[in-house]
Write a structure and sequence with these properties.
The structure is a single chain. The chain has a domain of 100 residues. It contains two helices and four strands, in the order ββββαα. A four-stranded antiparallel β-sheet has the order 1-2-3-4, covered by helices on one side. β2 and β3 form a beta hairpin. The longest helix has 94 residues.
Length: 160
């Protein structure tokens, strides 16, 4: 929606509850205003007009024919559409950043529990390994004692 074609153009961008008012001047200066927060973001054109050119543009616009004004308005509409698309991308990035922050907070909240669980599992694994080593030692000791007993029996039988 447009109001007051010159000296400023106002355009509302956004959807639902989140929207911005984009104000354009003939000097290619643009400003985004968030009416909900009062926050203002100044945008710069990649090739801003010097003040003398801006004055010439304003004078030319005032003297322009209705067809020329319509062409200028169409060009501004195209630029505003591009900015609207950029704002949609920025809003998506803001949402993605918010989701990332939420996930990071959730991970930070469960990390101590995960670390405690991992430490507990590590201790359990170490205890299990110690038990297996003790059992292996007992089996080997038992085998050694049995071999020693067998040798003693043979010796007794041979000497007797």
């Amino acid at each position: 929606m447009f109001f007051n074609f010159f000296p400023f153009v106002y355009y509302v961008v956004g959807r639902g509850e989140q929207y911005f008012v984009l104000r354009l001047s003939p000097a290619a200066a643009a400003q985004l205003w968030d009416p909900q927060t009062g926050e203002v973001l100044n945008l710069c054109s990649s090739n801003p007009f010097p003040p003398s050119v801006a004055a010439a543009v304003a004078a030319a616009a005032a003297a322009a024919t209705p067809q020329q004004q319509q062409q200028q308005q169409q060009l501004l509409l195209q630029q505003l559409q591009l900015w609207n698309e950029e704002l949609d991308v920025l809003a998506a990035l803001r949402n993605a950043n918010a989701e990332t922050k939420t996930l990071q907070q959730q991970l930070a909240a469960v990390l101590p529990a995960a670390e405690a669980f991992a430490a507990s599992q590590h201790r359990s694994l170490q205890e299990l390994q110690q038990q297996q080593q003790q059992q292996q030692w007992l089996v080997e000791t038992d085998a050694d004692e049995q071999q020693g007993g067998d040798a003693a029996v043979k010796q007794v039988l041979l000497s007797g």
